[in-house]
Amino acid sequence: MLMQTAANTLPESTDTLLVNVDHLSKVFRIYDKPADRLRQSFASRVKLPGRAAREYGRNFWALHDVSFSVKRGETIGIIGRNGSGKSTLLQIIAGTLSPSSGEIAVNGRISALLELGAGFNPEFSGRENVLLSARIMGVSPEEIAARFHEIEAFADIGEFIDQPVKTYSSGMYVRLAFAVAIHVSPDLLVVDEALAVGDTAFQTKCLTRIRDMQKAGVTILLVTHSTNTLVEYCDRAIYLKRGRLIKDGPCRDVVKLYANDLVDEEGGRAIDIPVPEGDASEAREQADTVSETKKVVSDKTSILDVKITDEDGRERTTFAFDDPFRITVSIRVAQPNHRPCFGVQLKSVDDIVLWSTTTQHMNIELGSLEAGTYHFTWSLRANFSGNRYVVAIGVGDVESGEYKRHARLPYAGHIDVLPQSNGGSGWLAPCPVFDFTK
Ligand SMILES: Nc1ncnc2c1ncn2[C@@H]1O[C@H](COP(=O)(O)OP(=O)(O)OP(=O)(O)O)[C@@H](O)[C@H]1O
């Protein structure tokens, strides 16, 4: 983890831009044998008259002529295969690596979660590292003292806070690094795959915090291999391939290109990968609507509130495999509804409907509803694979024999199902039994 203030600043006229990357390239010298590195350093210092210095090794372009800019408040996802240059780009933006050519300007305070091992002093305790990092970031001792409890609570590493960081597991390291990074009021938060290290519950906590930071106007650069996270959280995506910027555009277009490239490169044929209809700003708006009011007003039936709870009625979003959970919906019927019909869907964060039903499909006769307020509950079991599931709710009528929608909440909340230790991945959980006969 690293924190710093920007070295280069943008001119005043471009103050809506927070980051500007202009024809950026980074070349590394690669040597086939370690001894060649020494030879090269010797050859470049000792030049024999009349003879060209011998070159050892070869140039490797980790980044090649990359240009893009990021506006204040945007969240940009960076995607690409291993070795495509993502970390190199983030390190240059964060100022820990210098470019070979091109310009980079950042207009504000950067807080960066780079690869493990960067940032904290391994000999110092967690507490000392928090204080040191905050001081480097320009946070005053009083401010950091006031925030220390929050940082400690977010990291949730117990007594390890007073142990040297070198004794930490990678999960503990990331917990503390993330806690510090989000509590130093950055203008730009840079996150390099750090979330992949934490457990599911911690990832969810971090993503919730990222959502809060987005609402507070923080600009975010997020490297992720998860196309789901990209689509759900980013306004735009950048696809890097062998150091070159291949596409900068809407997440679903970038994901489609990236996914088809992967299939191509693996020797398959291009396929039409289902990608989400909406974009992150829509999801964010929906999430806002839901968190603030969970309300959809219509002239016939309005959805007033949706609560996801456990069996005991406690609001929860994380469930173990097969845990029971409930979705309770409150509605207001404005005009009498003689044949009401309620629907529920579970979707992937990519907006793919994984399961859907209605009271009509289930042959449930609800009778006529007069104007008034009603509550109904879907009781389900989380018998699916470890993953995130978005809940969508619909209300309508089937008075004419066909379903007519009155109101729909496409993002009424979500649940995270914890992975089973011996389960598979994906969405289903068919609990296979494996037999092997020789
Ligand atoms: N110091 C270095 N010296 C030589 N080559 C390097 C150096 N740092 C990175 N590279 C090379 O540059 C390329 C880009 O690396 P980078 O770590 O930026 O990729 P990445 O997209 O972040 O990969 P990953 O997803 O695996 O983290 C890789 O081929 C890597 O081997």
UniProtKB/TrEMBL annotation:
GO MF annotations in UniProt: ABC-type transporter activity; ATP binding; ATP hydrolysis activity
Keywords of the record: ATP-binding, Cell inner membrane, Cell membrane, Membrane, Nucleotide-binding, Transport
GO CC annotation terms, alphabetical: membrane
UniProt keyword annotation of Cell wall biogenesis/degradation present: no
Listed PROSITE patterns: ABC_TRANSPORTER_2 (PS50893)
Entry annotated with the keyword Metal-binding: no
Residue intervals of the ABC transporter domain: 46-267
Top-rank lineage group of the source organism: Bacteria
InterPro entries: AAA+_ATPase, ABC_transporter-like_ATP-bd, ABC_transpr_TagH-like, Bact_Polysacc_Export_ATP-bd, P-loop_NTPase, Wzt_C
PANTHER family in alphabetical order: TEICHOIC ACIDS EXPORT ATP-BINDING PROTEIN TAGH
Protein family according to the UniProt entry: Belongs to the ABC transporter superfamily.
Protein name: ABC transporter-like protein
Species this chain originates from: Caballeronia hypogeia
Organism lineage: Bacteria, Pseudomonadati, Pseudomonadota, Betaproteobacteria, Burkholderiales
